[in-house]
Amino acid sequence: MPRALVLGVNGQDGSYLAESLLRRGYQVSGVGRQSQSRYTPISPLFQYAALDLANRDALCAFVSDFRPDIAFHVAAIHGSAGSTYEISFSEMMKVNTDALHVLLEYARLENPKLRTIYANSLKIFPAPHVGQISEASPYRATCLYSISKIASLELISYYRQKHGIIASNLILFNHESARRGPSYFVPTITRALAAAITDQTAKIEIRTLDFWVDWSAADELMDIAVDVAEKAPNADYIVASGRTWRGREAVAELFARRRLDYRNHLIERLPESDPGAPYFASIEYLARATGRRPIKTIFDIVDSMLPSPTSAKRVK
């Protein structure tokens, strides 16, 4: 039975990864800081380990003991747009990058057949994002979080070239679900929409709607991540929907589908402005490698996050 390790199993991405792996018959070991698993269903194929990824010695011992065939590093210290990382930089580098180094060293010293999949980020590309973004696009650090992600990108490249290690960076664009933290944009908009459906006077404050974004469903992207591990685990991939939305247009349609005007329910802290030219994610390399393209839209994502009419009545 194949064995899969998921670092960060209690987060949005890690929990969906574990579920996808269990559906495919893997024995899964999930690692998180919390005392118990947050989302993963009870299964004889799943075991949970409470472990601080900043503790390198403990992580090394755990990986050597479990001996995975595939390892997914989707743990990260990060925040929503505008977050600052100066205070947490040291711990962030341990979790975001040094824990990856543990996996690569385990592959080099103990298991050269290990396939390591790392969750990288659109933030390695400097903003404002304009034009087509592909695996060949130049990257540059613009915040401390992006420094940790670029370091991890280069670390994998080095181990592939120097030691022949099998590893991939998945450069993930925005991906959302009900498991995303409440401070992020899509959960905020979903709360506003849910409130507006039941109360015509409801209002929520947001920063702005004038930006470009490529949205995908987290569960779908993580299922594709398992495809990468199984079919083409030794290259870097842009992982996105391939469709870019202006935030204002997407939100207007989300509300209009329910015969609502977003302007009656959202208070913008910044005045309306021109977000500039859009960017576009090139997912051709991913599609050729896996035979898949994400199909869920932002409307599918929000629909799945809204409370059902019956639950809304109970809450009311």
Q: What do you see in this structure?
A:
This protein is of the alpha/beta class and 316 residues long. The chain has two domains: 3-175 and 215-239, NAD(P)-binding Rossmann-like Domain (Rossmann fold, 3-Layer(aba) Sandwich), CATH 3.40.50.720; 181-214 and 243-279 and 295-315, UDP-galactose 4-epimerase, domain 1 (Alpha-Beta Complex), CATH 3.90.25. The protein contains ten helices and 15 strands. It has helices spanning 12-23, 56-66, 89-109, 144-163, 185-198, 218-231, 247-256, 284-290, 298-305, 309-315; strands at 3-7, 27-32, 46-50, 70-73, 115-121, 131-133, 166-172, 175-176, 204-206, 212-213, 216-217, 237-239, 245-246, 266-268, 279-281. The strands form five sheets. A seven-stranded parallel sheet has the order 3-2-1-4-5-7-12, with helices on both faces. Strands 6-15 form a two-stranded parallel ribbon. Helix 1 (12-23) crosses helix 6 (218-231), helix 2 (56-66) packs parallel to helix 3 (89-109) and helix 3 packs parallel to helix 4. The radius of gyration is 20 Å and the shape is globular. The termini are far apart. The model is unreliable at 310-316 (pLDDT under 50).
Helix and strand layout, with pairings?
Layout: E1 3-7, H1 12-23, E2 27-32, E3 46-50, H2 56-66, E4 70-73, H3 89-109, E5 115-121, E6 131-133, H4 144-163, E7 166-172, E8 175-176, H5 185-198, E9 204-206, E10 212-213, E11 216-217, H6 218-231, E12 237-239, E13 245-246, H7 247-256, E14 266-268, E15 279-281, H8 284-290, H9 298-305, H10 309-315
Parallel strand pairs: 1-2, 1-4, 2-3, 4-5, 5-7, 6-15, 7-12, 8-11, 9-14
Antiparallel strand pairs: 10-13
